[in-house]
Amino acid sequence: MTFRVQVRVIPRPGLLDPQGQAVEHALGSLGFAGVGSVRVGKAIELSIDAASADEARAAARAMCDRLLANPVTEDYAIEVEA
User: Fold this and answer.
1) By C-alpha distance, which of 16, 15, 1, 2 is closest to 46?
2) Is the pLDDT of residue 46 over 90?
3) Domain holding 18: CATH number?
4) How many domains would you assign to the chain?
């Protein structure tokens, strides 16, 4: 079975996010008041052939741990759809 897997990778809270700070400053400069704590991450969509959703999630987790996310500075969330 093929599963559609979405991975969201985002910098860990409390760590410097220069890209997020740049976006936050730019939004303020454009007149968008009240925007704060902007974090910029990445979204990755995968198609994974696996026997079950749990197996697809485990494969995605291994991919994140080894390549897609930096475990020291980033957190990730995985969503699996059949």
Assistant:
1) 2
2) yes
3) 3.30.1280.10
4) 1
Domain hosting 75: range is 2-81
Q: Radius of gyration over alpha carbons of the chain, in Å? A: 16
Q: Tens digits of per-residue pLDDT, 4-17? A: 999 999 999 989 99
The residue count of the chain comes to: 82
3-state SS of the chain is CEEEEEEEEEECCCCCCHHHHHHHHHHHHCCCCCCCCCCCCEEEEEEEECCCHHHHHHHHHHHHHHHHCCCCCEEEEEEEEC
Residue 46 token pair: 């995968």
